[in-house]
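Review this today:
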Amino acid sequence: MALTAGCSGGVAGGGNSDTGGALKFGMLAPFSGSESAFGEYMKNGATLAVDEINAAGGVNGQQIELIAEDEACDATTAVAGANKLVSQGVVASVGGYCSGATLPTLPIFLQAKIPMVIAAANSDDLVAAKQPNVFLVNGTGTQQAQAAVKFAEKSAAKSIYVIDEGDAYSTNLSKAFISQAKDAGLNVSGSTTVTPTDKDFSTDVDKMMKAGTDFVYYTGYYQAGSLVNHQAKAAGYKGIFLIGDGAVDAKFAEITGKGFTDNVYGTFTMTPDMLQDGGAWSAAYKDKFGTDPGPYALQSYNAVKVMAEGIKQAGSTDMDKVDAALHNLKDFSTASGSISFTEQGTLSDAKFVIVTIGPDGKFVLSDRLEG
């Protein structure tokens, strides 16, 4: 069932035209499965942006209607969701959480002539598809790996071990990090792929410990990553346990357990509390939804704002015109700072930072990696 938001009255006339009715923005996000918490964060962030735009008069005189469908972090579910959005007449796609689920939706939206601003998914495979209608408001795996390498250098890591989960996102980030780390002269002593549904990672931890590891980069998600961290520390691991942005969530601390959160860090894009005016944005979010914003709420908010600006500047929902307008955006102001895109549709400045687990279990800023 589609989840709709942000629409004022008079929507039934269809949303796919430049001449009237609502502009239907489609969002694919995980509303079921292990990543479902992120789906709600994303939908809420997008809804806040839609409501603000509509209250200010909409886009070129038209209101926006947000239609959300489940991607469940699963390719088959995502393809079905994308086809549902197309059949409902969406003029833009502003979702995408799991890269492996987002990838097969790219040709669907391209064939339907629908521009995409991807909110969270960030595998370099999305860029490698070379679709002119694809833009990312989250930094790519290559950009995230750059931050991880810089942190490893600052930490004087002597023996690095990399762990992924075999999916598009974590594999891309793992490969990008290993390549860049070696280029930087860092010692990558080993790497492995784990099965995320497993509960016992003792074999993987044993390999890691035997490699003399003092710096782990776990590029998968929090469900398995939190267990690997717990089991590694229980086995005597004292070094840094760095996680990718897919694992940065308060549930990591909850699952890994008290006493096991020391030296846990993450690579992540800036969150509202790290921004100069982020407090006002967070307050508006909490006032509307009754809870603090979670991971990717801000990126989803930005995705809607960026897409709306592209359509506004294009004066049309025609994909080619919107794509050209998005490429021409320069220093567009968003809640997380200014946004400009490269020729490949990636962020000119990804703004990755290092976060760590605070006293309440939530991730907080640790290092801006400046200088």
Q: What stands out?
A: The first helix runs from residue 36 to 55.
